[in-house]
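Regression test case RT-17, inverse folding.

Input:
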């Protein structure tokens, strides 16, 4: 059977024999999360909640009118 493994630089850098040194050297570039990250998360969750609620209401209206 033929080996179908795809060699990738990403796989090479994160393989166990490399010890994940790349992550340690890029850590200063990542830094701390933005101060608005918690607020942004709440906004996204509320938006998803309103969207799902709207879909439920729309589904009920369509069911009552056309069902």
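Golden output:
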């Amino acid at each position: 059977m033929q080996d179908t493994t795809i060699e990738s630089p990403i796989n090479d850098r994160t393989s166990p024999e490399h010890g994940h040194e790349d992550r340690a050297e890029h850590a200063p570039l990542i830094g701390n999360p933005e101060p608005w990250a918690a607020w942004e998360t709440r906004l996204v969750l509320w938006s998803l909640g309103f969207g799902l609620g709207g879909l439920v209401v729309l589904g009920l209206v369509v069911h009552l009118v056309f069902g």
